[in-house]
């Protein structure tokens, strides 16, 4: 078997496994969590409500700032975790807080919604290991 086929076969084996995390290291003890609202909370419809983010064993820094063991928050609304080896999307379901914010005001339509936090490095890629919160469910009525 020639070298190109061996390398291609090895790559195919690696690519077939679970998605890799980003390359920016995070403290394996890091914990990110949603401090408010609580899981199961009922929030008022028609007006914004506060969402605040908690983080332990890691620091917050704006995007594009490369400093060890830091990152910035991404709030995932009504979606699952994205691929861990790619930049986190920026859309209505993936809210970026690249200025280093630790809270936001959020307004959602009536209904059941999920919220989850995911830390991103200076380039919006999840850390290794990825640092994400438990997914919570809230109700807007």
TrEMBL record:
Top-level lineage group: Bacteria
KW Signal (keyword) present: yes
All copies of domain DUF4399, residue ranges: 51-141
Pfam families cross-referenced by the UniProt entry: DUF4399
Signal peptide interval: 1-21
Keyword set, alphabetical order: Signal
Identification of the protein by name: DUF4399 domain-containing protein
Taxonomic source organism: Paraburkholderia lycopersici
